[in-house]
Fold this sequence. Notes:
Number of helices: 1
Distance between the termini: 79 Å
Largest sheet: 5 strands, mixed
Mean pLDDT: 78
Order of helices and strands: HEEEEEEE
Amino acid sequence: MPPDKKRHGSQVAEPGSRPKTSAAAKQAGSPVRILKGSGVKRQQAPLAPASVFGPVGRRKSWWYTYRCRICGAHLFGRAKTLDAVTGERRAGCGHRITVMAARIYTQPEPGAVA
């Protein structure tokens, strides 16, 4: 076997060359985020639409449920404010996702006309 070849036909990277990004990521046109200071590119986390339930009675926090787009797990979370519900986070299943408030359920204000 020639010295510039590894097993299974893959080639050894030339000295001083940069690692190549995957061709699938380039073709898909998926958004890529550059991490500050590290020079590493990372794909944006998939969007997970959530159902958000407002505070009711003695409960002071917002509850939200969503489904992980990677593994399909149904997850639950709590936040102190409605703005804290949305954003990028690591889900309970371990995947990195971006939560978006798709449906918001709240109680009507007392005295409001329906």
